[in-house]
# Entry
Amino acid sequence: MGQIPSSDESGLEPGERTWSQRAQDIAAVAWPSFLVGAMATMLFFAFIDPTVLQEATFPSWDLGRMTGYALGFFFFWGIAFASSALTLFLARSGTRRGPN
# Structure
């Protein structure tokens, strides 16, 4: 995702280092999924009150409105993270084809 830095670090400033492929993959999955989770949370809770949802689903639990927002955000972030990670996995595990 994006440009992959070369193994030649001669063009870097002193003290600067390149990201490993794993770090690039984590950033390429975590940041977009965070943004999607935030947007989904805003859209969902614009129409649904977390306290009403809690009373309808888990009435015995004592959860506040802010806890509902947090749980909703982490739920949406988790779903988006899983989707992005699966996309990265499928893109990386495909067969490589040479020029035709």
